[in-house]
Amino acid sequence: MNDAVEAFRTVCRKVMNCWTALNLAVENGWGGDSSEQKREALISQLIDFCLSKKKLYTDEVEDLLFDKMQTLFNVDIEDQSEVEIARLLVQLHNTCSAGDLTFAVELNEKLTKCSTEHCKVKDEVVEASSGDSDDDMEGEDQGDEDGQDAGAAKGAGTKPRQRKTEELEDGWTKVL
Known about the structure:
Blueprint: H1 2-17, H2 20-27, H3 35-52, H4 58-73, H5 81-97, H6 102-110, H7 150-153, E1 165-167, E2 173-175
Antiparallel strand pairs: 1-2
Keywords: rRNA processing
Family: Belongs to the TSR2 family.
Pfam families: WGG
């Protein structure tokens, strides 16, 4: 039974280390300066919770994951990924409890440290050609919410466009 418990601990830790929501929370410091310690605490609490149960239910694990992600990292999980993680962990718990390590071995082999590179925003610098004029850009998104040119806001090296305005008779200014 010690092999089954150790297999559960190892694979559970690996599953959690591959969870994109948790990785993003830690990498971006959403839990503050102690985000890494909070991740370790979450994983330890989860493992202890699962091992303390003779019969483990998916909704219990879902609730634990959802609540801990909210309290530790201020993350509202909207992609239902905690449901998938909970299902995996319950299946892992059930098979390991029965002494069958096949699923644990398969899952351990399939999982690798997941990267969050695909989740990162990449800023691209676009050089404006000398032939572009304000009139050519008509109908395209020329700025962000605070009225600044998007390229200038990102430091793209282009000059901010001068906004054309029109004074309306009721005292309002219309931005063209």
